[in-house]
Amino acid sequence: MMGLLRRVQNRLSEAQAEIEMAIGFDRNNELALKQLGQILLFQGEPLAAIPHLDKAIRLIPEAPTYGASNGHWGNVICCWGMLMRRSS
């Protein structure tokens, strides 16, 4: 998946465009949804990542990558906490 390659290369805006195109072809693409969530986390948008990670987990809760999804949730919570402290 080109979006994954772009994410690994830290070309996040290009990665996001590729992943969004993949989701456009298949709205239930669990891997693409998780990748989009992770990209949004890397871009400092943890709240925007939540719906994508949530949908990925709901689609295939027994997926082999389920543990990775839970790790992404931990990142969301951590980033959200940091944002809340900054805004206080």
Structure summarized in a few sentences:
The chain is built from five helices and no strands.
> Percentage of helical residues?
over 70%
State the CATH architecture: Alpha Horseshoe
Number of DSSP E strands: 0
Q: How many strands, which pairing sense, and closed or not: the largest β-sheet?
A: none
N-to-C order of helices and strands:
HHHHH
Give the N-terminus to C-terminus distance in angstroms. 40 Å
- Approximate shape: globular
Domain tally: 1
- Structural class comes to mainly alpha
Contiguous low-pLDDT stretches (5 residues minimum) are: none
Return the CATH topology.
Serine Threonine Protein Phosphatase 5, Tetratricopeptide repeat
Rg for CA atoms = 13 Å
Q: CATH homologous superfamily? A: Tetratricopeptide repeat domain
Per DSSP, what share of the residues sits in E-state strands of 2 or more residues? under 5%
CATH class category label: Mainly Alpha
Determine the mean pLDDT.
82
The number of helical segments is 5
